[in-house]
Amino acid sequence: MSPTGNRMRWLRPERSKNSSQKTAGKSFSFGMLKRAVGYLAKDAPGIFPMTLLVAAMQAAYPYIGILLSAEILTELADPGRDMEHLFFLALALVGLNFLGKRLIDFCSQVLEVMKYTAMKHVVRTVAEKAWKMDYALSADPEINETKERITHWFYGRGIMALSRQLLNIFQALLTIAISAALVVEFFRARAVGEGGMAVFLNHWSAVAVFLVLMVFSIACSILSAARGEKIYREADEAAGKPMNQMNHLLESCFTQYQRGKDIRMFQAEGLFQDRLGKLQEEFAGYYGRAHQASRILRILEQFPARVFNLLVYLFVGLKALYGAFGVGSILKYTGMVAQIGNGISRLCDSFRYFFQNFENINTFFQYLDMPNRTADGDLPLPQETLQDYEFEFRAVTFTYPGAAAPSLQNVSCRFRKGEKIAIVGRNGSGKTTFIKLLCRLCDPDQGEILLNGVDIRRYKYEEYLKFFSTVFQDYQIFAFRLGENVAAESEYQEERVKKALEEAGFGERLASLEAGLHTQLFKRFSEEGVELSGGESQKVAIARCLYKDAPYVVMDEPTAALDPVAEAEIYQRMNRFTRDKGAIFISHRLSSCCFCDRVFVFEKGQLVEQGSHGELLAAEGRYRKLWDAQARYYA
Fold it and tell me: Which distant-in-sequence residues (6+ apart) come within 8 Å of 196 by Cβ?
């Protein structure tokens, strides 16, 4: 079993459909809770004190209306009512409701700002993890699925939901505490009279009946809500895949300018719309079934609650009728019962969501804690290595995650400073994989790569990357300014950038740009953005390679978008630029092999031939066949 496979099982442990609650329980730990709280508070230190303050205000706010309304009703029912006191109560009710609502809104807005700050921290951390992740793992579909899930949780799930869940728990506890005090007061009020009903209302059995009915109503509500939440959670999990596929389809096929040409020329809109429609139907199907099941559950949940509320009004009304308290207290005690029922239901729901969500929090931290093999090295790159170096591949084998066969198998070779190496072979023969391993974007599954006799995995990763200037066949030009694209940083030496662009053959185009190096590329962020042709983009990528001026140069199909004349000019310039450097050139145009010291020929992941251009032609092997196949077109 590959290390990647083991890592993925560790990241997303397998579980049955019926084991989600057990898994969630096992995911919880106070250590994890402490880490999550500290993580959110790192960029927003006041988030949890503000959460507790908002929860306290939201719990207390309903009782302003309940208690003051009860006092007003009691005063109105009194024949000797004091109008001045009544006016004061009405003014207090309106004023406290207004001020309380405004204060809650203000604190809630402050809390939202803090949550947004914490969310930026989460998004930044997930992005940084993606950038620093082993390159081979960045293409793993399971890891990408996990990353997509994390980035789409927002405030509803995962670590960002923790603040809201703690708010709900604390609010429910305070609601229950306040209501419990009123419940005690309610049962201490004695009905007046000698009749059977008065005796029953004062007897402990009345309390027992009341509590049994309340517990039954709350239990029905909790069970129905739990079942409904489970239905929606299963729908979320099932709908996650088509949702991610829809997002990817919209992002990659409908918002990227470069892909619009093929969609229009081949009139492929119908193809994409059909695929999007099927994904939408699949997505909607999961939630449609969930909505249908939840409607039935809501009926089962609401019926016992409505019956209990009816009995509560009857019970409170009878106590008031038998003189246990004034008419205004009817409003107070019925409101109290509703609040305590809501508080208990909310507390149970909040605790259930809280513990279930820890599975998501656990996934989040497992993603962040996923070890990077590329970060293992701690050996500095000696300065003398930059001046004189030799690379050696020793029986290197590499397989991409999820691939059925190795992309490279048992490859061995050596090359040193000053040598120009051409790498040729058919598509899929392993040429680019060879480069990725050399640049340590991937690490071998077997064998080792040595730099001056030291395994490159022992070197500090960031220092080792500085050893190479590259142009990959799938290079990227970013929607930044031209100079920033070449320098790969915001602050740069303009003269060096201009020289690199001129060396790459972009000088004439640069002179035509009004803003020069400050020209915004592409129109994604600016209407004044300049669109580059394929050949111009490739020249900018080559200029980036020249600007870095690293000891070793790697050119993976550097001239694929250039015409033969421009290609010849680029090769001449690159040959001068790499005169005292080591360099590797990958190209399907074998003319680049003529000025290289040696040629490596790859076939089906194996290095089948190596030697000079003349030696390989004379050997009349695989290279001679490739050369003759192209020579016919240049004759």
Answer: none
Quick check: 171 and 346 in contact, CB under 8 A? yes
Residues whose CB is less than 8 angstroms from the CB of residue 510 and which lie 6 or more positions away in sequence, other chains included: 482, 498, 501, 502, 516, 517
User: Hey, CA dihedral for 32, 33, 34, 39, is it positive or negative?
Assistant: positive
User: SS3 of 359, please?
Assistant: helix
Instruction: List, for residues 20-72, the tens digit of each pLDDT value.
Output: 444 444 566 788 888 888 888 888 888 899 999 999 999 888 888 888 888 88
Measured CA to CA, the distance from residue 64 to residue 100 in angstroms comes to 9
Residues 6+ apart with CB under 8 A from 251: none
Least confident interval from 40-54, 284-298, 354-368: 284-298
> Which one, of 425, 632, 465, lies nearest residue 554 by Cα?
465
CA distance 461 to 470: 16
Three-class secondary structure of residue 527 per DSSP: coil
Work out the number of other CB atoms within 10 angstroms of the CB of residue 516.
Answer: 16
Q: What is the DSSP letter of 257?
A: G
pLDDT above 70 as % of the chain: 86
Helix orientation angle between 47-77 and 83-132, rounded to the nearest 10 degrees: 160
Q: Are 349 and 18 in contact (CB under 8 A)?
A: no
